[in-house]
Records
---
Amino acid sequence: MYKIMIKDHGEIDAPEGSTLFNVANNIVADRQPYVLAIVDQRVQDLSAQIEMDGSVEFITIAHPEGFRAYQRSVVFLMIVAAKSLLGPKTRVVIEHSINKNLFCEIRDVDITEKLLRTIERKMREMARRDTPISKNVLSVSEAMKIAEQFGYEDKAALLKYRRVSNVNFYKLDGYYDYFYGPMLPTTGLINNFKLIKRQRHGFVLQMPSPQNAYELAEITPNTKISEVFAESNEWARILNVDTVGALNDLICRGEAGDIIRINEALHEKKIAYLADRIHDEKKTIVLIAGPSSSGKTTFAQRLCIQLRVNGLRPSVISLDDYFLDREYSPRDVEGKLDYETIEAIDIKKFNDDLSALLAGEAVEVPRFDFIVGRRAPQGRIIKLLTGDVLIVEGIHGLNERLTEHIPRDKKFKIFISALTQLNVDDHNRIPTTDTRLLRRIVRDNRARGVNAAQSINRWSSVLRGENTFIFPFQEEADGFFNSALVYEMCVLKQYAEPLLFRVEKDEPEYMEARRLIKFLDTFLGIDSEVVQSNSILREFIGGSCF
């Protein structure tokens, strides 16, 4: 017998040979079933055997790691159902996320309602059978053979760069697959999903939503943002890289410089296009908004240059400089400082300054010092002349409340985010939130005196604020800019890894830090010296010409 202390449930005796799943089945979860366990600050599949006395925390999909495991397991269930109906080498690709749901494609197959209903019925049948999802620890050479057997060229390319001798492949109903993280122990825990047709080869895999009491996430018409994802896929085609393995191959062939130059040129071409629209439509105010660490500051400066090329005189102000002093800043439901709410902005002063600027007056625009958490004693003087363009960048730029006294036809709204066009492989996507979190960790340590643990600790509040104050307004934008760079993780890793390794095991953020370290390990490194000085990436790693 082993003595196991279970968080929130007390101590129990577990017979030798018991799995975490056996123990979890004897405990009543509050609302959702348990899907994973945390043992010694490590996330573990419930299939793991108990081998010693210790402490365990069982988690549901309400926990971020539990939700990720549920997503991965539903994806695996869908892939196996599709392959069992269409053939074992059918290529299913998880393209991107939309409101917690996943946009998927089955390559070279016309998607029909009949086909989706057949796949969905197969998924529900497998879920009712309570089929085990087993973890198999394989050598890299064994994993490569399985990847070849099932036509996983993307996974074979990724496995070439594994630095460890073993890799976890999961098995369901005779099908093997690699997933980037732990899975549910059985399909019986998968009870909430739906397939919805979207395009000729595409469909949405609808998931439970943490924001919707874990009922299916809302499907909203995101026409404009879907167009941005389509543009991102086209960029991936131009760059000839859509997975990490393909990117690593290009780096090994000495082609990193070409990838960087082409990616940066695509950025510049898009910025020039937006500047042309602003000029042609005779806009007075440009409002740039987007979630944290999207690169709004650098984008605004690069847009200024293109506007000057068009004969306009732009001036830039940042909403960040209108933050209330830290002691007056509101706090979120967890009691943390909430910089994401619009209430953290001194809206009255911003509107007073905006009105004065548009009236032709000289205004001293404030400067916020993030190190000390208050407004600096002196700002900078700005005055607009006739025909000038005012650029305002900040997370609330699309919210009409910010500029409600300015006629809508005078404003041009731009939504910017880092919608990565790169996946780990066909079945493991890179969340845009991970890209932005790593950017923020690096930037805030360099420019704001914040360590990695503090950045991770604040991230849940940041995401909550974005879902409330930013994403609901994205479809109101007149133009979109995707700031993701296909190569950026290869550069960010050398800055982020030392910061993440400093997070100690007894800190609550340790588990998330280790997850990010493991993620970065899949990328080969690129020297930051080759990154041009006006790149969006320079806003985070330093050395920007702006």
Note: Residues 256-280 form the longest helix (25 residues).
---
Amino acid sequence: MIKSRLDPGGEDYLRRREAMLAKLAELDAEHAKAVGGGGEKYVERHRKRGKLLARERIELLVDPDSPFLELSPLAAWGSEYPVGAGVVTGIGVVAGVECVITANDPTVRGGSSNPWTLRKTIRASDIALRNRLPYVNLVESGGADLPAQKEIFIPGGQIFRDLTRLSAAGIPTVAIVFGNSTAGGAYVPGMSDYVVMVRERAKVFLGGPPLVKMATGEESDDESLGGAEMHARVSGLADYLAEDEHDALRIGRNIIGSLHWRKLGVTPFEPREPRYPADELLGIVPEDLKVPFDPREVIARVVDGSEFEEFKPAYGTSLVTGWARIHGYPVGVLANARGVLFSAESQKATQFIQLAGQSRTPLLFLQNTTGYMVGKDYEQGGIIKHGAMMINAVSNSTVPHLTVVMGASYGAGNYGMCGRAYDPRFLFSWPSAKSAVMGPAQLAGVLSLVGRASAQAKGQVYDEEGDAAMRAMVEAQIEAESLAFFLSGRLYDDGVIDPRDTRTVLGLCLSAINSAPVPAPGGFGVFRP
């Protein structure tokens, strides 16, 4: 068992806790924007039509008192589009089956899709495919947001391709249509395995009456052109005709329940709560990410029984590795202890990743890294080849990977610790997380040195005042672009989470991962680097 050295009454702890609570208050405010949809005016208009909101539909679909893990709630943050991107995605339990659920928010521009809606939806279908989770679409969409069509039309075809690939892989897809499903949106029910439509509400057509009139001169009305009853009785697109939204959700639950879906992964051991309270996670990460912290304090508050079998504890001490369980699921943990990765840490990580591959154990990466060490001695000592070895191991490991960015995630350390480009099954950030090619001061300093050397080579006097202004501008820009909200808005993670929820979130992800069978082993054995 890990013996905690954290002092919850200490000055450092209390200061860090207050800083984290302030960040969480900001996070709550941004989440509220996503929950608010298109704003009070459009929410009220939607309710007056007798319709449920997107999250209300999800709440009625999932099992009572079961968790719903919302994904990418900050999508589009910092862009011209509303926070949340006009769609809700996540993992919920429906009739006892974990499913990926996507729900258009019709209070945001009629549920039309902008570029971030597209990316968020594609991410959801990828999660469904890789983890073998049935996929439920709660549809009410006006198709593409036409002013942004140049960014949506061509890549948007992947949504429909993904639906057919899910079906081909034997993963059921269900579309429940509550309102308009127009133009490209019509292909969502068209390419789903099961389709439910709400009588007198659902309207599914490639082109509505105005477009048909324009294209062919034909006069038509919504119901005869694409109404739910027509599709149930004439076209055959609707498999089930629901009387209202509640009935549609009941039918959707029955469809999932009739699948007799079974998990194909491992059965977890009996879970045990950590011996230390999750609330103490608020005071571990320093405000200044250059100050190191012991990741064992995080591990002790996340893993079962606070028990952690550390691997190679005396070697490569800047990286902590070892075995544990989370909600009964075995995991291998890699956690940065002092930020910098040296050759020893890289070799240790490589061996550990290969051992996890041999035992088919999922890996959890807890990131707080400034990258691989630089300098003459380290270059001569082989830091490039050792870092490459670690990145090679991460790239070719076939067990599921989970990543949590707790603090810094800079340079190639982001890659070696399984950042977004290395395709972890799930990746979440704490509000304290920052990620960039390097720290703001370092990046501005590099640009300053390059400019100074260029001026010297040309025999010019260097503009010190301009240099100071440039450094301040670059530092401010990189600081803003490295923050957790900014990165989450671009879907570089699956959400910014409260540190206290880390164990729960990881448990939900590990359960979802095990809907799929354990992946086949990789093609290499363990070697001692």
Note: The domain at 1-35+265-437+483-529 is CATH 3.90.226.10 (2-enoyl-CoA Hydratase; Chain A, domain 1).
